[in-house]
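Lay summary. Proteins are chains of building blocks that fold into shapes, and those shapes determine what they do. In this project we predict the shape from the chain. Here is one chain we studied, written as its sequence of building blocks.
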Amino acid sequence: MIGLGTYAFFWQHSDQVPQPLSLVGAFEATKGLDVDLFQICDYAPLEGMDDHELADAAAAARDLGLTIELGTKGVEPDRLSRYLDLAGRFDARLVRSMLYSAENRPTLTQAEEWLRAALPAYEASGIDLALETYEQVATADLVGLIDRIGSPRLGVCLDPANVVARLERPRDCVELSAPLVKNVHVKDFAFARQPGWVGFTYGGAPMGEGLHDYPHLLQTVRPRERGINEVVEHWLSWQGDAETTIRTEREWTRTTIEYLRSNS
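And here is the predicted shape, written in a compact code that computers can read:
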């Protein structure tokens, strides 16, 4: 299933725009694009919502016919327990996370202990926990950790754009993690020369115009055959003013949805 995540609404949610979009507003915009999945990922206001606000947000998603996934950072047992509870409120079947949070950077040994403590509750609830590929942990180390634990509910959230920062090739990341993938983050990426020709910047690109070999990912991971959701997000830099930035963000979202629908 194709979905949108909060990173597809990064600037629309931001306080840098005159009227930031609410979570329910993002739900409505998602449905307006004929998309039935939304991943609430690294959305700070979620953790501050009271029971009434959570119930209202979950009801809005259900009324719109949206499937919800959740995303956080960190594998501390208390955090994962909290997100398991939130998953129950939203009828979510997947929680995406990362090994590191702002508060903790565990060793692989510590992360394994925490995950082993948290996973029985996920297994009992039938909810998947997907750990994202990113630059702070080598893909081989992440895959090795997941293999050692061996839980059917633990897998990978595949985002090959992230690993370039540790000089990993995106294709290698895709191939190494493919058997364990439970979720895909979809965005294109490219290098651009800095002014004066003194180095490069690495950032987002409209889907299909950058360096991401997405057909290779589709062929290797086979997300549509395996029922793995593909969640759209962007690396879009500020475009100089709010109006241009929001317009560009929306255009990138439409472009990515069209790309995914035309590439099967």
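What the prediction tells us: The mean pLDDT is 96.
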